[in-house]
Specification:
Layout (H helix, E strand, L loop, with lengths): L7 E11 L2 E7 L13 E4 L2 E8 L3 E6 L1 H6 L7 E7 L18 E11 L2 E7 L2 H4 L7 E4 L2 E9 L2 E6 L1 H6 L10 E6 L1 H11 L8
Antiparallel strand pairs: 1-2, 1-6, 2-5, 3-4, 3-6, 4-5, 7-8, 7-12, 8-11, 9-10, 9-12, 10-11
């Protein structure tokens, strides 16, 4: 479990094919690694991955073909958002994030508006119903607040801190991004659509 508060911008430094899967070597940037162990989870651009090897400057993860097909940004070198898994005693500064990507969106607008930035992302139509004004949406691992959603396009305001301390400073119009809807929305839908089965005799 994660919070969507990015702790460091790292770099995918090497991609080693492993059949249809791959192994990534990721430079950690400013991410503190003293408390990391093999088997721990680190979110990479919002994707929960398991650490298989590490030192103070880098770590390695395996990425399956299924994960590669369901996400974006893990099959190329470049900057990535990093967040270590949440501990029960940590502050929940963003919102509850699982690291299980629900879909891939496309940046349609990234423009300065005064001191802030307007981010607009076209989301898959099937995800639109889970996104609400003033609700939370995880974009490439970043917990963000939705300003509005119109015709499958989500509008979000990015403050300077977010631009400076995440890989959004390197994002461009047309880029794809990993999306995770608010966890609560999944359970609300499940409760509304579930039909009780009769007890076995």
């Amino acid at each position: 479990m994660f919070t969507g508060i990015i702790q460091s911008v790292g770099q995918i430094a090497e991609i080693i094919p492993q059949g249809q899967d791959c192994r990534l070597r990721i430079q950690v940037g400013s991410l503190e690694m003293q408390d990391v162990q093999c088997g721990d989870s680190i979110a990479v651009n919002g994707v929960c991955l398991t650490v298989t090897a590490f030192d103070a400057r880098q770590f390695e993860v395996m990425v399956s073909q299924v994960s590669l097909e369901a996400t974006c940004g893990l099959n190329r070198l470049g900057p990535v958002n990093l967040e270590k898994a949440l501990r029960l005693a940590d502050r929940l500064g963003g919102h509850l994030v699982t690291g299980h990507v629900d879909g891939v969106g496309t940046i349609t607008t990234l423009a300065e508006t005064g001191e802030c930035w307007l981010l607009q992302v076209r989301v898959p139509h099937a995800l639109s119903k889970y996104i609400a004004k003033k609700g939370s949406l995880c974009v490439n691992g970043i917990s963000l607040t939705v300003n509005e959603i119109v015709d499958d396009v989500v509008s979000i305001n990015l403050i300077p801190h977010t631009m400076q301390h995440t890989m959004m400073h390197a994002a461009r119009q047309g880029d794809q991004v990993n999306l995770e809807i608010d966890l609560i929305a999944r359970y609300v839908e499940r409760m509304q659509t579930w039909e009780a089965s009769p007890c076995p005799a």
